[in-house]
Amino acid sequence: MSWRRRIATISPIACSGTRRFDVDLIVTEDDAALSRFAANQIAEIIVARPTAAIVLATGSSPMATYQELAAIVGRERIDVSRLRVFQLDEYLGLAADDRRTLYGWMRRGVLAPLGIGDEQVVRLPSDAADPELASQQYEDAVAAVGGFDLSVLGLGPNGHLGFNEPPSPATAPTRAVSLTAESIASNGRYWGGAELVPRAALTAGMDLLLAARRTLLLVPGAHKRAILQTTVRGPITPEVPASFLQAIPGVTVIADRAARGEAPLPEPAAAGVGVGAA
Ligand code: GLP
User: Fold this and answer.
1) How far is the CA of 104 from the centre of ligand 1 (A)?
2) pTM of whole model > 0.90?
């Protein structure tokens, strides 16, 4: 399947063939400018392909971008009625109407502002009785649309994408995962304490995210400085799942000055380092 072919070049067994692409790193003045830039990028992609399949993160990083996007969509009368939207990740073990579901956040933060209905969305169910089956159904739904045209992601403090916790190889499929202590702690700020964060989740797989034709990784804030450097300049390794973005084309990392820091980023590490360790 052609949209998957790209991952084969960065799978652990083919590590000697790993190619490193220059990650397109855009640094904006602040989070507001980051959001405007990112929203315009997303809007352009939607205009060019109104039936695009897009996977959208929750988390705090993309929320201002979604607001900007909703404003652009309204102002420019952009048609979003034919988009196919995919949920990036979801906690497991919550009732569908629990206030902590990531789908609820997605509805409030991006779907409702854009006027996108549930029927346009492929979900990862928080109340899945059979997480393995739910994961397979999600993978099948992505395959049915030929892969993601666009992936809008945030960067986890430990380098996770979605809930692909370290270590996650490039081939990791959509699946149920246990959350790391770091993710539980960082997600605690969403819900009023780490004790309220579920311990397991479903995540879109690295296999699907790395096959996306365009990827926007949104990285605002000084607290992301170290992991941003590791992601774009460190070795490509399952220990930092986001580092695999160095190995695929079509990636734009949009950071603000606080996240980039004042010092220039170091030169990239040698291509392919670490991939074989998976
Ligand atoms: C969270 C989520 C990701 C999100 C990332 C960054 O734990 N699993 O989907 O993109 O970590 O979150 P934030 O944008 O709040 O920093």
Assistant:
1) 15
2) yes
